[in-house]
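Course assignment 3, question 2. Fill in each field.
Student: A.L.
Task: Predict the tertiary structure for the chain below.
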Amino acid sequence: MKLIKKGFIYNTDKKWDWSVFGARAGCVDIIDKNVWRIYYNARDANNESHPSYIEVEAGNPQKILYIHNKPILDLGQIGTFDDCGIGSCSIINYNGKKYLYYLGFSVKKKAPFFNQIGLAISEDGGKTFHKFGEGPVLGQTYRIPYSFGGMYAACVCGGEGVVHGYCPVIIKWHLVNGRPESIYNIRYFESTNGIDWEDKQIVAVDFKNDREEGLVWPSVIKEKDFYRMWYSFRGGVDFRDKKQNAYKIGYAESKDGKVFKRMDDIVGIEPDNDENAWDSIMQCYPTVIKYNDLYWVFYSGNGFGSSGFGYACFEEEKWKIKS
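Answer field:
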């Protein structure tokens, strides 16, 4: 079962003042048999992230049907957890509404970022959203002394009356050539209402060696009797511009949806050989949907999505659990 790259989809190309730098794929919502809505995140000249969306033809995402021309959420008030940026992460249908989980960015003096998880709710099918509150639904505690991983996200999926949360959590900051760098793995959380979350103190995906330092952006699909997870992993140094250490797409499976076994080698996707290609160095932040017996993997390219996003597909649907 290998990923087959299909091509580039979208970048904002500096169309608006809130989208000067890039387009990071956030999450994908299947609207109906004709339309998929892709939520993405773009940065302004102050490096502050803003979420918006495009709509594409179902099954043919390179055909763009609609481009939204403004952010779907405003930055928080000064001093709140999302006053320096908002990044859409994942979306679920819940109690007749759409729950959009997002990363709220703020700044500290020594660490370059401090991130917590917020919730926005839509009552019109995902076109407009209002924040659940001015504070995060999942944030810093005595068990999580740092923050949630980088400009990344929670991924949630419904099942068994429980909403499952998979969040990159920073476990340490350290200095690399005088620059603070974060180390984070993926942790499991649970909620019975999509709002109040319990930290189960379970590491869902951990490092495979001491050279890894970043496991981020999980995207989970529940099958009949097991779970599939796609995510990104990177090395600890030179991961911004060296393809051997930059983000790649990983894969894992689990029987209980809590602890996953890594199976990265079977993904098969590689950087483009063309040095000028949008994903020649980095393939990061996958978000996955299942449609017409295929897994559609949307992912961001070089510069953590500065080059925009595209997609790949798993051509084989039937795959037995190996964990």
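Instructor remarks: The longest strand covers residues 162-176. The radius of gyration is 18 Å.
Grade: pending
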